[in-house]
Amino acid sequence: MVFAVADGMGGYEGGEVASAMAVEITLQAWRDSPFEWGAAKRLARAAQQANIEIHNRALAVPELRMMGTTLTAAAVDRGMLSAVHVGDCRLYLIRGDRIVQLTKDHTVTGERVRMGLMSEDAARFHPERSVLTRNLGHDLIASVDRITMPLVRDDRIVLCSDGLYNVLREAEIESAIRGLDSEQACRRLVDAANDRGTADNLTAAVFTMLAETGHAPAPVGLRARLRALFGY
Hints:
Layout: E1 2-5, E2 8-9, H1 11-32, H2 39-60, E3 68-69, E4 71-77, E5 80-86, E6 90-95, E7 98-101, H3 108-114, H4 120-124, E8 145-150, E9 156-160, H5 162-165, H6 170-177, H7 182-195, E10 204-208, H8 223-230
Antiparallel strand pairs: 1-4, 2-3, 4-5, 5-8, 6-7, 6-9, 9-10
Helix pairs in contact: 1-2
């Protein structure tokens, strides 16, 4: 199971092209890669392939020279979550009634929050909240974060663009989809963000771990420990 969210940049046409390429190439490269590599390596290689092709397309087409995109992609294989991330889409883990952001925002405000120079509330409304420090397409080799962790039964994974989390807080995301299946959850999130008048592009994907995985649950309620685990 693989799913991905991308949010393009570089004007309307460039953003549309870059985000579509990111998702399509990542998924195709994943399908074409050897199963023996394992999910984490397959996904990382797929994201880099997408970056190279977006970069080359931008060089070849003058109208698209400034295009780039975010990408957050996740694969679930035998109860293990593997993810790649660049930009400011987000990957959340919901376990029980706790929700934790697994990715870090590659934005000017995101860096300031991590350095303790700005509060999360202030970052939500800052005019530079969408200014990226990393993306796919601008450099030949992209700096991509990688995440691997075990899941347990009933864990939920939420991928979303900033059009969702800029208007819904984490607790609201968790409560909005509680008790819903994945399709219903996506619709509920999109409707809730639109009701709040979101001004940004809006995409959401939800995965629910229905099977027993045999993995011991990590203490996801301890945000500090997760931040230490994932290096931010």
